[in-house]
Specification:
heterodimer, A: alpha+beta, Ubiquitin-like (UB roll), Fumarate Reductase Iron-sulfur Protein, Chain B, domain 2, 2 domains, 9 helices, elongated, B: 644 residues, alpha+beta, Flavocytochrome C3, Chain A, domain 1, Methane Monooxygenase Hydroxylase, Chain G, domain 1, 21 strands, globular, binds flavin-adenine dinucleotide, binds iron/sulfur cluster, binds FE2/S2 (inorganic) cluster
């Protein structure tokens, strides 16, 4: 498809800060190249705002290659837009028909408060990892990497789970704003690998407790998270988390 | 003037590090908690250092401008990480990795540092696997390896095309564990804007809280800068949008020498620029050159033809023709330069004429589409997503782009800059890659510095330091804070006509034109004046909207660009000073048949620059002072690299 220049109405959430009342604002944008990425379209809109002396739209982004997990826009009713397995930064304007309205909102979840416009605070994810998303091994404590063979299928499955970019789209997609998919991806990765087994149950218990404390909702297995996850993290990880969690609970009740 | 002491330990190359570790002064475990270490940057180098130092018992304050340590630019590394494990039994060894790295760097790095890097490379893989990093494995359960440029052995460990992500998440998990214990205090969305020196020693930093705009002071006994590279001086590069040089440059202005700034790596296989709207360039992994063939039409008239309509005899496979032995797998600097030559001759393809083909037709014919998809599927998908062209059907179009910076803050063997107590780790320092970095060696260096070097050498320094922490009400802190506040006020008040991005793009064009893939004295002279003019323009005409006490991306950009505008000039000066070609630094006057011509007699030194002494006010004025560290080669013999 040859390059074209399109026009759009951009309907975007503006909110000055965490305490301010937000609302939608409409902008008209012409001359958008179909070769532009979605974020380059926002760059273009922002440059026009800045030249007029207006505050540009705030949004998180960095790698623009779909790997850092920073970008986080709710576009036309979908986190990261309508394409499957793609982050906001990998969307291109050729996917948006000429002369249409594009609606952009921030992630909406109590545990992800808005900082400004489309930028939200996702530090709750960091605290969940701090509560147990690691193997307790100090630097220098490791034995030779090939001493413990790990079957390829297991390593590959762990990799699939570890591919989570921590973007939070799963939370934004969930009607309960649950973080189950994110938590399960980490629990699953480490529970699959022999290195992570020793702490697997304690990890599941602690991370779920932290998730609850952060104010994420509960999981009712609608599967909306996996459907919108840009890295296609599957529901089987939630099942694995549940197994680890239940065994852990049973274990700790028994000890009591 | 030779106050530059690299502090390379005595002894044979194989014993230096072990001896040094033995001689290092130790801090009593009970006293470690009396020291606070400031770590700026939590990418591979910073997260590894912060976690390891906290595990030892030090108090660590860690800073990142990102919203989480997991977003550091390291996350984007694709191909892999080198280590001299010799798991493939193909003749690898610590010495061979050392040798390949010194040669790959075109003999412009320190033997002692590079050997240590090769030594600890093996521990890195062990550590990462113990953390649960899911490296690729063979069916038998053992770790898999692939080959990378500049080596004849398979020593590259990888996790699909997401090695950097998996390594960073490993380091991030170790860091998170220490945050949970309280040994690391983590400051996210916090940007370091200056370092504070007291009696010549680094004693703290000044930061800006990016959400509230608050300027804060933090005191410590040592400061580690792990703040990444400066490829974004070119505006368009493969780096993440926010990568910048401010931390290193502020340290430079406070006395730390900046080494070899002109050593930049231009990666040959990136998706070409398609228009003015472009915000960054995307890397297509080096591994593609294993199966893809690089060519352009032999006749300029064929440029606009469909590639499939160009007969075999009319295709110019220039790498294969010029370098029959290495063919498409010549090192990065050679591949990039040759792409530029053919495009300059008018043979380039695509809308801008600044692209060459990377063609998989023959590989698909030979191995079938599904084999090719197995190996490169995710890259082909990414390419299609961006360009809307299907590389299974038409050749990819690629062009070189700025990718990595070998230059950085000068450090000694202990990774300490010439400022006492101030360290630089990872891409932010200059230490290990000479004039050209080999693929898969940056991840190795970042983690080596963070996990296995700094935890020893920083302790050695702290063992000599008093426990008392400086008070942030000390005049050095209040003054530095006031200066930063004034600088921000000044930038906000200019209220000119050009946006920060507009000025940044102009800088990028100057740097790319005159200080990019090839350079000459005339152009560099001109470029210096152009950059100086642009700097004037910035300080008189930049427009920064919003206020300073809120989240303000425009202000963040403007402050970073102000520093790039000074660093750019230093890069130009360094390139002008170095009257030779070596690795990524190519001076048109110094070549033999289009290849780099080194001058070992006169330029076998590290160029460490001191900020102009007489510079006053906001803007750099005057000439920086050059200090030379002679490079000594006792093990590797210097020869002209040949890939023919
Ligand atoms: C696309 C791409 C692919 C690559 N692939 C490979 C590969 O396959 N193999 C390989 O070996 N290398 C690769 N590299 C190179 C490698 O990724 C980097 O050199 C390396 O990750 C740098 O790590 P670092 O820890 O030094 O810095 P970074 O990861 O860049 O981290 C910098 C940190 O510093 C922080 N920071 C910076 N300035 C400040 C400040 N002023 N205040 C507060 N915080 C600050 C940032 O927030 C961040 O946390 C690749 C690079 C690119 C661009
Ligand atoms: S599970 Fe998917 S949607 Fe959720 S944070 Fe990870 S990558 Fe994002
Ligand atoms: S900007 Fe990094 S994933 Fe989109």
């Amino acid at each position: 498809m040859a390059e074209q220049h399109n026009s759009y109405k951009i309907k975007v959430w503006r909110q000055a800060n965490a305490n301010a009342k937000g609302g939608f604002k409409n902008y008209k944008l012409d001359g958008v190249s179909t070769d532009m990425s979605f974020l380059e379209m926002i760059d273009m809109l922002n440059e026009t705002l800045v030249r007029k002396g207006e505050d540009p739209i705030s949004f998180d982004h960095d790698c623009r290659e779909g790997i850092c997990g920073a970008c986080s826009m709710y576009i036309n009713g979908h986190p990261h837009g309508m394409l499957e397995g793609v982050t906001t930064c990998q969307l291109h304007m050729r996917s948006f028909p000429n002369n249409t309205t594009i609606t952009i909102e921030p992630w909406r979840a109590a545990a992800f408060p808005v900082i400004k416009d489309l930028t939200v605070n996702r530090s709750a994810f960091d605290r969940i990892i701090q509560s147990g998303g690691y193997v307790s091994v100090n630097t220098g404590n490791a034995r030779d990497a090939n001493e413990m063979p790990i079957p390829k299928e297991i390593a590959d499955e762990a990799f699939e789970a570890a591919a989570c970019i921590g973007c939070g789209a799963c939370v934004a997609a969930c009607k309960n704003a649950s973080a189950m998919l994110f938590v399960s991806a980490k629990v699953s990765q480490l529970a699959l690998l022999p290195q992570g087994k020793a702490e697997a149950q304690k990890r599941a218990e602690n991370m779920v407790a932290q998730m609850d404390e952060e104010g994420f909702g509960s999981c009712t297995n609608t599967g909306a998270c996996s459907a919108e996850c840009p890295k296609l993290i599957g529901q089987e990880h939630i099942a694995r988390l549940n197994r680890e969690y239940l065994t852990a609970k049973a274990g700790s009740d028994f000890v009591k | 003037m030779s106050e530059l002491n690299s502090k390379i330990p005595e002894g044979s190359i194989g014993e230096k590090w072990d001896k040094h570790k033995f001689n290092i002064r130790l801090v009593n475990p009970a006293n470690k908690r009396k020291y606070t270490i400031i770590v700026v940057g939590t990418g591979l180098a910073g997260a590894a250092a912060a976690a390891s130092l906290a595990e030892l018992g030090y108090n660590v304050k860690a800073f990142t401008f990102h919203d989480s340590p997991r977003r550091a630019h390291s996350i984007a590394a694709q191909g892999g990480i080198n280590a001299a494990k010799n798991y493939q039994n193909d003749g690898d060894s610590v010495y061979r990795l050392f040798y390949d790295t010194v040669k790959g760097g075109d003999y412009r790095s320190r033997e002692g540092n590079v050997h240590r890097l090769a030594q600890v490379s093996v521990n890195i893989i062990d550590q990462c696997v113990a953390q649960g990093v899911p490296f690729a494995r063979e069916y038998g359960g053992m770790l898999d390896n692939r080959s990378f440029g500049g080596a004849l052995v398979s020593r590259t460990f990888y996790a699909k095309g997401q090695t950097g992500q998996q390594l960073l998440l490993g380091a991030y998990s170790a860091l998170s564990r220490q945050v949970a214990t309280g040994k690391v205090e983590m400051f996210t969305r916090t940007e370091m804007l200056d370092i504070v020196k007291i009696d010549g020693k680094a004693k703290g930093i000044i930061t800006r809280n990016l959400v509230t705009g608050e300027i804060e002071s933090h005191a410590g006994h040592a400061v580690l800068l792990c703040t990444g590279g400066y490829s974004n001086v070119f505006f368009l590069s493969t780096n993440a949008m926010a990568c910048n040089a401010t931390a290193a440059w502020r340290a430079h202005k406070k006395g730390a020498y900046f080494a070899n700034p002109c050593y930049t790596q231009i990666h040959p296989t990136c998706i070409p620029v398609s228009g003015d709207h472009q915000s960054k360039l995307t890397l297509m992994s080096e591994s593609l050159r294993n199966d893809g063939r690089v060519w352009v039409p032999r006749n300029p008239e064929d440029k606009n033809k469909k590639p499939s309509e160009i007969a075999e005899k009319d295709r110019f496979y220039y790498l294969e023709e010029k370098y029959p032995t290495f063919g498409n797998l010549v090192p990065r600097d050679v591949a990039s330069r040759n792409a530029k030559y053919v495009c300059d001759e008018g043979l380039g393809v695509g809308a801008t004429g600044k692209a060459v083909y990377l063609d998989f037709r023959d590989a698909i014919k030979r191995d079938g589409q599904s084999r090719v998809a197995d190996k490169y599927g995710n890259l082909f998908d990414m390419y299609k997503q961006i360009t809307h062209e299907d590389p299974y059907k038409v050749p990819m179009k690629i062009y070189p782009a700025p990718h990595y910076t070998m230059g950085g803050l000068w450090v000694d063997y202990n990774l300490m800059t010439n400022v006492d107590g101030l360290y630089a780790l990872g891409e932010a320092n200059f230490s290990d890659h000479g004039a050209n970095r080999l693929g898969a060696s940056a991840l190795m260096q970042g983690l080596a510095d963070g996990y296995f070097v700094a935890p020893y050498t920083v302790g050695d320094f702290l063992a000599t330091q008093p426990y008392k922490t400086e008070d942030t009400s000390h005049q050095a802190f209040t003054q530095a804070k006031q200066e930063i506040e004034a600088r921000i006020k000044k930038v906000m008040s200019i209220n000119g006509k050009q946006t920060p991005d507009e000025i940044h793009k102009k800088l990028g064009r100057i740097m790319w034109e005159y200080c990019g893939m090839s350079r000459n004295a005339e152009g560099l002279k001109l470029a210096r004046v152009e950059v100086q003019k642009l700097r004037e323009e910035f300080w008189n005409d930049v427009k920064v909207v919003g206020t300073e006490n809120q989240l303000n991306a425009e202000l963040e950009k403007a402050l970073r660009i102000a520093d790039f505008l000074e660093l750019g000039e230093l890069m130009i000066l360094d390139a002008h000073n170095r009257n030779e070609s070596c690795g990524g630094h190519f001076r048109e006057e110094y070549e033999i048949n289009g290849e780099a011509k080194r001058d070992d007699e006169n330029y076998s030194y590290v160029a460490a620059w001191e900020f102009p002494k007489n510079s006053t006010g906001e803007m750099m004025t005057g000439d920086p002072v050059l200090h030379k560290e002679e490079l000594v080669f006792e093990n590797v013999k210097l020869t002209q690299r040949s890939y023919k």
